[in-house]
């Protein structure tokens, strides 16, 4: 049984994909760490990375090669300046040398040292093998799997011990929604309070607040940047950035210069039903346009679905409650993270395992539950909202055109956000005791659906829109 902190579910990273960008980046960092621990790092003379399955099939479009190179030079995805990415990669490509782990200059040609294999490794669809030649002539190999949301494991799950320890250290270990409800009932508390008690067993209150503020700041900045950046997205699909134009239409004359001032300015705009829809879409599109342009977003629970949670939280802040402050943001993120972790434990948050229901479906469920708590819903209604949101994403396939996280991905975030708001409203007007389907049932159904789904629809770009629409049509 895994213990998953909400900070595992909400991570700051670089787009466009948590499994294909952030995961391989983290895997490269981890491999370097392990080489150092074993004392082999200083002996490395050559490196090669082999990518398998979905990682290989959509790796180019998802910038897996770029992420690997950044991981191999020891860059941190949370802090590496976005503006330095392209020049750094161009430099490696031109000079064919990489500063391994920030220390050792090693000959590296991405065209021949990153190898894309069509076949799948048996353990997971996103496999990668790192190989180092050392001065003695020996070769050292290590295999990692990117299992979605930036999580990386080895087959032996060597991190299971650490997770198990952390799980037992939680005062209220949760695997299923029913346990969460039970705890809330016995403790007479809401879900965010219970989640906070678990987090306190890992971090101090000051650290929790600091991290949550950093997460929210990154979400707000990604919405702000997305709404103020025009032009075309990279990758060759000629996708026009839409958040900029929508924002221009929606924003009345206002002066602001920071993301915080922008938020206040939106609160002063007059909104009717259509404008509410458009604002929510605008926030979601903005984040995912930033993500598609290899920008910094919060993986929540993945990068492809990074727009849903911030868009719904922003909806609450600028439309529902103008007096909302950090305490509301904190509650929202605590609940969203916990719901995401229930899906990760009981099903998957990897599109390579479960299609888009595992990304947009889970993010929509996270946002729906979190919004329901802020709107005064009971713990039962929170879980009901999460269930409703997922119920109407079941079977959603992953079929990104050209392997890029753009079509249908960007728009899909706006749909996930709107469904989340609707799910919250439906749950708030319902008695969860009368619900026919529990959250745990829908988690299980999602997993069964994932297992039945053809691999064509699991982040391979071998089915659906990815083959139905020709690149020349775009
Ligand atoms: S279709 Fe959905 S799951 Fe697939 S890459 Fe796009 S957002 Fe992610």
Structure description:
The strands form 3 sheets. The protein has a 5-stranded mixed beta sheet. A two-stranded antiparallel sheet has the order 1-9. It has a two-stranded antiparallel ribbon with strand order 3-4. It has 21 helices and 9 strands. About 2% of the residues have low confidence. With 474 residues, the chain is α+β, with helices and mostly antiparallel strands. It binds iron/sulfur cluster (SF4). The site of iron/sulfur cluster (SF4) has 13 residues, from α19. Iron/sulfur cluster (SF4) binds next to α19.
Helix content: 40-55%
DSSP strand tally? 9
Low-pLDDT residue intervals, each spanning 5 or more residues:
158-167
Roughly how many Å is the radius of gyration? 22 Å
- Spatial arrangement of strands, main beta sheet: 5-2-6-7-8
Which kinds of small molecule does this entry bind, naming each only once? iron/sulfur cluster
């Amino acid at each position: 049984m895994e213990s998953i902190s909400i900070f595992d579910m909400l991570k700051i990273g670089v787009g466009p994909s948590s499994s294909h960008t952030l995961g391989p980046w983290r895997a490269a960092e981890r491999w370097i760490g392990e080489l150092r621990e074993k004392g082999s790092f200083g002996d490395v003379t050559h490196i090669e990375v082999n990518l398998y399955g979905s990682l290989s099939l959509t790796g180019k479009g998802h910038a897996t090669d770029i992420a690997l190179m950044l991981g191999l030079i020891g860059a941190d995805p949370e802090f590496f300046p976005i503006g330095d990415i392209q020049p750094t990669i161009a430099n490696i490509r031109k000079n064919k040398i990489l500063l391994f782990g920030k220390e050792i200059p090693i000959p590296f040609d991405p065209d021949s040292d990153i190898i894309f294999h069509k076949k799948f490794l048996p353990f997971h669809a996103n496999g990668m093998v790192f190989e180092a030649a050392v001065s003695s002539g020996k070769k050292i190999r290590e295999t990692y799997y990117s299992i979605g949301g930036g999580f990386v494991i080895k087959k032996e799950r060597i991190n299971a011990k650490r997770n198990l320890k952390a799980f037992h250290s939680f005062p209220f270990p949760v695997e299923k929604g029913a346990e969460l409800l039970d705890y809330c009932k016995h403790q007479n508390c809401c879900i965010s309070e219970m989640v906070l008690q678990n987090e306190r067993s890992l971090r101090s209150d000051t650290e929790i607040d600091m991290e949550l503020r950093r997460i929210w700041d990154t979400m707000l900045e990604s919405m702000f940047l997305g709404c103020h950046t025009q032009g075309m997205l990279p990758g060759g699909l000629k996708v026009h950035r839409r958040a900029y134009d929508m924002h221009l239409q929606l924003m009345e004359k206002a002066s602001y210069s920071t993301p915080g001032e922008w938020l206040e300015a939106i609160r002063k705009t007059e909104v009717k039903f259509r404008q509410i829809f458009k604002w929510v879409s605008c926030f979601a599109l903005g984040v995912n346009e930033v993500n598609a342009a290899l920008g910094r977003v919060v993986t929540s629970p993945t990068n492809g679905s990074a727009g849903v949670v911030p868009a719904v939280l922003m909806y609450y802040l600028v439309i529902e409650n103008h007096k909302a402050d950090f305490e509301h943001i904190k509650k929202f993120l605590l609940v969203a993270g916990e719901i995401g972790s229930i899906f990760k434990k009981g099903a998957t948050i990897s599109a390579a395992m479960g299609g888009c229901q595992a990304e947009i479906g889970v993010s929509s469920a996270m946002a729906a539950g979190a919004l329901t708590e802020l709107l005064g819903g009971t713990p039962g209604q929170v879980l009901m909202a999460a269930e409703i949101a997922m119920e109407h994403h079941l079977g959603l396939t992953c079929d990104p055109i050209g392997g890029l996280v753009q079509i249908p991905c960007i728009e899909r975030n706006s749909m996930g956000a709107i469904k989340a708001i609707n799910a919250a409203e439906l749950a708030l007007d319902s008695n969860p005791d009368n619900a026919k389907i529990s959250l745990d049932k829908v988690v299980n159904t999602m997993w069964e659906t994932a297992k039945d789904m053809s691999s064509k629809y699991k982040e391979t770009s071998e089915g659906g829109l990815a083959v139905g629409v020709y690149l020349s049509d775009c």
